[in-house]
Amino acid sequence: MGAPTTRARTQAKETTMSHYSTDGPVNAVFAALQTSRPEIQIERLTVTHPADSDDLWFISVPDRPEDVQLECYPHGQPPFLVEGDGTHQVLTTSDANEAAETVLAWLASGT
Fold this sequence. Notes:
Shape: globular
Number of strands: 6
Low-confidence stretches: 1-18
């Protein structure tokens, strides 16, 4: 088994992107999310072992139990894997705009 992991919550409107972003194209996804929904909360997976990947984020809106996961290659590189809580909510794309639009749509649907 891998090392234990924790989720560190970061509210997009209260912190700068540097707390949960990378230097890669995934930043375009975060920027689009912040622009469209400033209240969005973004949690980056925090790992305790350096060999584990932390290129996984949990995206949610306050007072809603659902979240959408966004995963990518190291350094924020595509493709982006977007997974929601609903049935068949899985998307793989290299397009940051498509990833952001999908996250927003799934959060808006509440499933």
